[in-house]
């Protein structure tokens, strides 16, 4: 039997078994297969880094040495000089068979350490086993020296010193939320409308900055007055931007020189030599000048993201690759036929792999909350153009084809669905999900455009350009719309709201008074008293988190500063202000609401079983909760089985959910960000349901402390949605997805057997149409059988490329903890057509 025939028979067998990861290995090119297998996995396995992953020590030393040397300069200038020194001196490499370059570490297996972010993270890194290069004692000595220098000087240290002491203790307790009130950690939208439309490269921006400096310097020697005083700071900001943009061009040219040296002195394969010389020309062109073809466009985009990460630890990757790279794909593949479709797929597949390999050191709470990945790289596909027409193109389809070939868990895709999407595109989305990628998830574009206008006042033309800021929240990549800092560091552990309402604001897990005293719930005589306590605890928790993050944002230009991000943002280049300054920023904040649905289910359980049925008293309930239901199993099962649960189209519980959301929406317009805009909530979870399992006490929904919390957003509790997928959609459809919050994550698990063939596609399309008609803004799918997942638990090496949707992101199943794996298996497998 010939090799092609044997290969086709193998593929047929794998399709029957739905083992899509083996099919991908058979179908991808040898180049792509090598690159996929050569990549170092940076995401934590559960909460620990994989063997062989080491902290890069070149960056911390280069950065710290230069920061110390320029100690009399303004912080923004010091940062620019320090990062420029890194870009000029850090070791660089080119991976065999690659066509794209750029990484933040000096070696492929290293992860970057953000030394100036938080002393508490630096201390954790020192004590993290396995990540220090040999000889370990020497590495630890260097880490200790760097930690000693930065102690008390990091961005978080500076914010903590001026925070209200009580707020600081409660924010840092780890009980009520997570995140860091600084742009040193987080993420940022890039001003793609300024950068990625083919109008300018870095040299063009430097020219704009030079003109602004020249004009400003003339003003400073003019008539004295208060109006010229801010100009002195602006000049320094512009100088910092220029300095780091020039260093970025030099950094790219270092790769160009390396590629030429390898091609002209070492490479013997003529085809590879040609590739290396093309890479050299690419790096000489971008980022200095606008890209001219697909390879340059992808390289330009990748450089921008890598350069931003030399400046700050970015945990998300806002992008819209089909929209901004699509014209170059069309030019190269369809119009000029410079490359074939297969050659384009190799480039795009590598673009995904180069993204997947990016990693930086993160504290354990972040690793546990984002198991298996290094950040939420959710790329936005589809949607509409500013005029409302369909934005899908051949690049949209190529990205999904490439994703099925390389099967990386990062980046993932989120597709902006709208009524004009062609069937051929919907089939590609279906195929990605049917083959178990867990992406693209679906976003309801008309709903979310209206939502962006409602909550943050984005003009419709800008709202139509939106990208995912992280997992879920839309944000326009525009001059006044981009978000330069993770304001969602106001990430709330919302199950604590109902816990504190029941326990008078006291936290029995951390043993301290956290929330306000809202009354001894043992004395509550009706549900309304409990609900009003819940409202007060919600307001307190949101206020505490938002105050902290607002202060961090306001002080960030002074305490940290982002010269590179400023240099690629039109508002900053024009104004001379640091990009994190709220001046001229429209605001795009939200409160990420982890562990949300526990509130509605718990409140409904108390209302039904205690106040309506009077089967138990509040006194008995609180006694049971304080001992984690131990000795009260029969009572606990009553609260699990006989109380209404969200996701079953039951108005009793659904009305409570709506009431909770609308109280939050009301308060969201009371609290304001530094730009003066609103703070709507966004229920989702990542792996927070596992991270917070031992931090949230026993709850009235029957959950014990230590049990996994629900898997996020507005998803029903695992196994608690008893009436099929339509009932879930109807419950979720009662929410107003424009005015009740910023967005609402919904996990659904579908049967791979039922999705087979054309009938499977039509069932899925009908489900999607119902989802859209009911006005939901989000849904994501897991289409992997219990049999496959159980097999992966038994034999992880054989199933290393099995991907699951966690909550807001995808991960390789074998890279998440056993508790998270079991939690995903417990999700209800919905039968479509019910």
Write structural notes for this entry:
It is a single chain. The protein is α/β, with parallel strands linked by helices and 834 residues long. The chain contains 34 helices and 20 strands. The chain has a six-stranded mixed beta sheet. The protein has a four-stranded mixed beta sheet with strand order 3-11-14-15. The chain has a two-stranded parallel ribbon with strand order 1-2. The two termini are 46 Å apart.
Structural class: alpha/beta
Number of helix segments? 34
End-to-end Cα distance, whole Å, is 46 Å
Spatial extent as radius of gyration: 26 Å
Q: What is the count of β-strands?
A: 20
The chain-level mean pLDDT equals 94
Strand content: 5-15%
**Main pleated-sheet profile:** 6 strands, mixed
Poorly predicted spans: none
Read across the widest sheet, the strand sequence of neighbours is: 6-7-8-17-16-20
Percent helix range: 40-55%
What overall geometry do the principal axes of the alpha carbons give?
globular
